[in-house]
Amino acid sequence: MKFDEKILVWILLPVALFLLFKSSEEPLLIESSRPIFKQFANGNTIIFNICIGYIVSLLFYILVVFIPENRRNRELKAKLGQPISFVFEAFSSGIFHWSKHVIHCKPIDEHIKVIDQFLKQANFKSLGEPRAIVILQSADEILPTFEQLVPVAFQISHEHAMIWLSLTNSIRQLSRLWHDKSDERDYGVLDLNLKEFVEYVEQFYATKS
Question: Is the pTM of this model over 0.85?
Fold first, then answer.
């Protein structure tokens, strides 16, 4: 369901509740003091049944679709956050970070809280050559994981998948830079793609499912 459609569904709920009370055969305490709640001259049964059907359908949607879908998307985002955390933790890890198991990385939420710090550090000048090398080596190690997780991103939404493809491309460019000879590396490529990577991560988790 599109975002605008969801808004319409929730806007119609108070309308349905109002019409439900107004068309109900049951006496209301507020009916005597609020003439607006008095029944229509005709069609009360039809209006009442339509409103009941709408409210029951909405409750069914919330319980069967909305809540499970949101839970599933949160779980998928958390899983997709593991390889992202692997890259973020390379910003401050030692030379053997590339060998770290992804499942041991911190939850992505902890890194999102300080995303601005990563954005400031996402350049060769701030990192220095030793940490830049760690990031390039880590990107090369984690690239296959990013590529394999593209179908998972599509399960969240098409928009999330497009952002994930951009994330993957940034990691791919860093991976290619790792394979260049050390004296031939263009660290301007690192500056561009690492900054884009951080920005795409922020966008990925800010985008609603």
Answer: no
**Residue 156 C-beta-side C-alpha neighbours within 13 Å:** 24
* Helical spans, DSSP H, in the chain: 3-23, 44-61, 67-89, 108-112, 115-121, 124-127, 129-148, 150-156, 158-178, 187-206
User: What residues make up the domain containing 161?
Assistant: 71-206
Number of folded domains that form the chain: 2
pLDDT tens, position by position, for the chain (209 residues)?
Answer: 555 777 888 899 999 999 998 888 877 655 555 677 778 888 889 999 999 999 999 999 999 998 999 999 999 999 999 999 999 999 988 778 878 889 899 999 999 999 999 999 999 999 999 999 999 999 999 999 999 999 999 999 999 999 999 999 999 999 999 999 988 999 999 999 999 999 999 999 999 87
CA geometry: angle at 163 spanning 6 and 125, to 5°?
Answer: 135
Instruction: Determine contact, residues 88/164, Cβ cutoff 8 Å.
Output: no
Write the CA distances from 131 to 40, 95, 98, 163, 193, integer angstroms: 74, 8, 12, 26, 15
Last residue of a domain, one of 24, 46, 69: 69
Please tell me the distance from the alpha carbon of residue 101 to that of residue 140, in angstroms, as a whole number.
14
Q: Are 87 and 178 in the same domain? A: yes
